[in-house]
């Protein structure tokens, strides 16, 4: 009996490949094409409308000599480091607590995840009210008799970025908790039983056994958090609009102001390109760890 001849690799799953053509074209034209267009025009002196008058690195020199841009980079660095560390720690701790098969787990999980369903604008406005010294936390504590209590981070230029961080953590921690909880539920129950039989303390089990096994979950979570950090904009606009002064500026807001308020497309494109570079710095190591590592172990 003659063996069935298999079609060439190019023609396998042909229907699925044809169906994917619109998506591929959209990605190439809209995303890749738009990105390339932005990078090219960042080397021009485009103002209100794009102009093909190239000025070399002038826009980037102006960008990095701007005090507003430097402050936005500093704020993004502070916000990013704190958000990465605290989101992972708080999210993992909450997931570990819920993983203990507590009562009303579904209720607690829903409550903790609910802030993620809100838009960043709503979250920013809510926390603007909560942190308002006239009727927020400070006013409530003072009404209890602690007249000297002071808590107004959104009105203090030195710590305003931490007030924005509070709102960001409140919204994003629930998602991190769910990702971590899914990772914990994927750990074989026999591992927990073996650790208890060997008398290994729970904290050592988490630190030396469970967390290393959850490496893919942590890497994916880090990429999600990092991509959100680079794009942070809504929280700042809703809470402070970049103030007091320019003390809470972030790169995304700088780009928006340059393009739509100052009508300087070239400067906005330069800022966008630097943000793209930051995303690439995050994505490339992730892709290497995810796909490069797999190839080595195949």
UniProtKB/TrEMBL annotation:
InterPro entries: ABC_transporter_permease (IPR051393), MetI-like (IPR000515), MetI-like_sf (IPR035906)
Transmembrane domains' residue ranges: 21-43, 76-98, 110-130, 159-184, 205-230, 269-289
Gene3D superfamilies: MetI-like
Domain ABC transmembrane type-1, chain residue ranges per copy: 73-288
Any one GO BP annotation for this protein: transmembrane transport
GO CC terms of this entry: plasma membrane
Membrane topology: Multi-pass membrane protein
One of the Pfam families matching this protein, by short name: BPD_transp_1
Homology family: Belongs to the binding-protein-dependent transport system permease family.
Protein name: Permease of ABC sugar transporter
Record organism: Nitratireductor basaltis
Lineage: Bacteria, Pseudomonadati, Pseudomonadota, Alphaproteobacteria, Hyphomicrobiales
């Amino acid at each position: 009996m003659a063996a069935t001849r298999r079609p060439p690799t190019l023609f396998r799953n042909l229907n699925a490949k044809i169906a994917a053509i619109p998506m591929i074209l959209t990605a190439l034209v809209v995303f890749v094409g738009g990105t390339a267009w932005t990078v090219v025009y960042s080397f021009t002196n485009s103002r209100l409308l794009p102009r093909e008058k190239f000025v070399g690195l002038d826009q980037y020199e102006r960008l990095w000599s701007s005090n507003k841009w430097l402050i936005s980079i500093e704020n993004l660095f502070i916000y990013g480091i704190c958000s990465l560390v605290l989101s992972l720690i708080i999210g993992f701790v909450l997931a570990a607590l819920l993983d203990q098969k507590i009562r009303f787990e579904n209720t607690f999980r829903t409550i903790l995840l609910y802030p993620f369903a809100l838009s960043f604008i709503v979250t920013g406005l809510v926390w603007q009210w909560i942190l308002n010294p006239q009727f927020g936390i400070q006013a409530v504590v003072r009404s209890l008799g602690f007249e000297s209590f002071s808590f107004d981070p959104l009105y203090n230029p030195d710590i305003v970025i931490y007030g924005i961080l509070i709102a960001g953590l409140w919204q994003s921690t629930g998602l991190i908790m769910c990702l971590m909880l899914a990772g914990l539920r994927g750990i074989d129950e026999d591992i927990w039983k073996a650790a208890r039989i060997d008398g290994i303390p729970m904290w050592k089990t988490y630190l030396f056994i469970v967390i290393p096994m959850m490496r893919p979950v942590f890497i994916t979570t880090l990429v999600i958090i990092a991509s959100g950090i680079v794009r942070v904009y809504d929280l700042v606009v809703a809470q402070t609009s970049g103030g007091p002064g320019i003390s809470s500026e972030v790169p995304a807001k700088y780009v928006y102001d340059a393009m739509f308020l100052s009508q300087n497309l070239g400067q906005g494109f330069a800022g966008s390109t630097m943000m793209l570079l930051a995303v690439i710095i995050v994505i490339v190591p992730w892709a290497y760890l995810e796909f490069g590592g797999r190839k080595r172990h195949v």
